[in-house]
Amino acid sequence: MFLELQNLFFEDLTVGRIERMSKTVSSSDIVGFAELTGDRNPIHLSQHFAARTPFGGRIAHGLYTASLISAVLGTRLPGPGAVYISQTLNFRAPVRIDDTVEVEVRVVELIPERFRARLSCICTVKGEVVLDGEAWVKVPSAATQKVASA
User: Fold this and answer.
1) Which of 32, 67, 103, 150 has a 20 to 30 A CA-CA distance from 120?
2) How many Å from the N-terminal Cα to the C-terminal Cα in the chain?
3) What is the dihedral of CA 9, 65, 132, 57, to 10 degrees?
4) How confident is the model over 91-109, as a mean pLDDT?
5) In degrees to the nearest 10, what's the CA dihedral of 95, 97, 102, 105?
């Protein structure tokens, strides 16, 4: 899933620009996320426990799915140097082991005087929205970069 870095400046962005990535969720991803965060809820880690829930089996952490959005923001749109300001998240459906999550980030608004971009963020599995929301990011300006490096 490693994305090639794309370093965009605010001046490179246009409303409607889209970046996408996909990631197939593995059991080791879920276990690793639990280790990193300390969230060891058995619905994520124990098939025996999760089988007795309305989901009928293990599911990925919601924030694991959300972290895939962060991967796009930090590597592709806008990429390195972007500063995450805020993120809304709506969890619509569970993500399961072996699901392939398709992530789409789209520029929906640009605020030039503040170098801010509002981004629509949607994660789907087999065409079903599993997570959606909106992010605000501060994007480096090419003009500011040139002054700083002079």
Assistant:
1) 32
2) 36
3) 170
4) 98
5) 60
